[in-house]
Design brief:
Helix content is 40%, strand content 24%. The chain is an alpha+beta fold and 210 residues long. It has a seven-stranded mixed sheet, with helices on both faces. Helix 6 links the parallel strand 4 and strand 5. The longest helix has 18 residues. The two termini are 31 Å apart. About 6% of the residues have low confidence.
């Protein structure tokens, strides 16, 4: 069946949360943040993810991928729209920024991430920031991820704005992201009292269509 990519709706949120929990269960960054798996309450985690999804509906470019005629969420992607470097944070952006800091225990880690982004984000117009993209493991290899990417990279090309992402895996993710136009720019270590997670930063320059 053809894959359809549509904006996330309230009705999609339960399926989106299930997709995130299943797809990120073994993700290195997720394992690093929640290093004691015995303390994870998946129901509370669903509530937290629900808050993030609703924030994304209002403030981000949040899309889900489903087979035509089906309501099952097979994959999703959320992009933070570009913001000029000189433009102050809106209240909603401030809330997200604070929420991310809380998720990282208010530690030095969040500050390190912002510093690296500041070093790499040299375009004063800002970047389309891919905050999350995931496809159910059972559905990978079907072009779902590419379809989710193209929903925003087309817009980025029209606007002439670059894109940015951070991946917690080098293999196979870097090659996958290179296939949709990204290039590797930096590897950074997120260090929380000696517990390290490596992130791989990539940028996609806007592509001019002939």
């Amino acid at each position: 069946m053809p894959i359809q990519v549509t904006p996330l709706t309230e009705a999609d949120i339960p399926g989106a949360i299930t997709t995130i929990q299943e797809a990120f269960a073994s993700d290195p960054y997720n394992l690093w943040v929640y290093n004691d798996r015995s303390k994870i309450d998946l129901n509370r985690n669903r509530v937290s993810l629900g808050i993030r999804c609703r924030w994304g509906i209002r403030n981000a470019l949040f899309h889900v991928a489903k087979e035509e005629g089906s309501e099952r969420v097979l994959g999703l992607a959320m992009w933070i729209p570009p913001r000029a470097a000189h433009k102050p944070l809106t209240w909603h952006e401030w809330f997200w920024d604070s929420f991310e800091g809380w998720r990282l225990w208010g530690s030095q880690v969040a500050m390190n991430l912002r510093q690296v982004q500041k070093e790499l984000w040299t375009d004063p117009r800002g970047y389309y920031f891919l905050n999350i993209i995931t496809v159910l493991p059972s559905q990978q290899g079907k072009g779902i991820g590419r379809a989710l990417f193209q929903e925003v990279t087309r817009k980025a090309d029209e606007d002439g704005i670059p894109c940015y992402l951070e991946s917690s895996r080098d293999e196979p993710n870097i090659k996958i992201y290179e296939a949709v136009g990204f290039r590797f720019v930096k590897a950074m270590d997120c260090d929380d009292d000696g517990a390290i997670c490596k992130l791989f930063c990539m940028i996609r320059d806007a592509q001019v269509r002939g």
